[in-house]
Amino acid sequence: MRILNIMSGGKAGGAETFFVSLVLALKSAGHESRAVIRSHPERAALIRAGGVEPLELPFRKWLDFTTKAALEREIAAFKPDVVMTWMSRASAICPTGDFLRLARLGGYYPIKNFQNCEHLICNTTELVDHVVKSGWPRARASYLPNFARIETAPTMARATFDTPDDAPLLLALGRLHPAKALDVLIRALAIETRPYLWIGGEGVLKTELEGLARELGVADRVRFLGWRNDKAALFGAADICAFPSRVEPFGNVVLDAWGYGKPLVAAASTGPADLVRDNEDGLLVPIDDAPALAAGIGRVIDEEGLADRLVAAGRKRFDADFTEQACVQRYVALFEELLRERQAGHRRAG
Description:
Elements: E1 2-7, H1 14-28, E2 32-38, H2 41-49, E3 55-57, H3 67-78, E4 82-86, H4 88-93, E5 100-105, E6 119-122, H5 125-133, E7 141-143, E8 169-173, H6 182-191, E9 196-200, H7 206-215, E10 222-226, H8 231-237, E11 240-243, H9 252-260, E12 264-267, H10 270-275, E13 283-285, H11 290-302, H12 306-321, H13 324-349
Parallel strand pairs: 1-2, 1-4, 2-3, 4-5, 5-6, 6-7, 8-9, 8-11, 9-10, 11-12, 12-13
């Protein structure tokens, strides 16, 4: 199968990370996989390292006279069976043609941007309900969850970030953005005073979050690591994965915690609440509740056997439903089903 994925996102984030993972996973599964992205040297390098040569285009909002024409040329040259667009702009400007035209949604985008698509793939059941309530036909929307790529790497030495070996270590990954509620996690650190915290991510709130840590007297236990591509090394060093998002449609970090074998404490935003079985494979706490988050972290530190129990159940969930192989099989099976329906429709029309 010849599959072209088109991503107009520019900044680092969960959707962009999963885009790279899926493009490379489809190639690894034996399909001819190509990628078109908004110009982004780091993302292009990751895709290239996986054996796929990306096409980088501007995807500007205004006065962009090159992107759509370049997409048309790429599609004409590649002759894909499937074109899957990510983000609103890529979906709105992608041409139609003799191929299956899909869009993958990981957020609450306006449905008007996807009118040229034959089918929508949503990474949560709640997103399927959202697009249907917005007027999209239910028969043309499918739920396919993300997967997480679990890699091996030497454990990051805690001394790298001036962290004691004997202190409980929390790891939080995500954009420094209001939706990620890292302010709540920093406030929790002022209540539960034993852990150190590594935050992997970049974003508009960095200065504000650094100031909050100083204001609360916890700056000596918080490390801002910047955007990271070495999750395996970071998870190896951590004791607990903290995921405090107040808005989170899916939550790849949940899968990372399960796959890397770390107990998870997460706020009950949409994605984590849908994925996590509370007190079985993770602990869920109310959104925007620093005392509850601190209490959950304290339980994992103090309650005998809890961390091991959460890790074992999380790994079982991961192996059953969220491996690369399982998720790619679901994607390919959907592509094949929709291509058969498309061909049958053409025969009836003919």
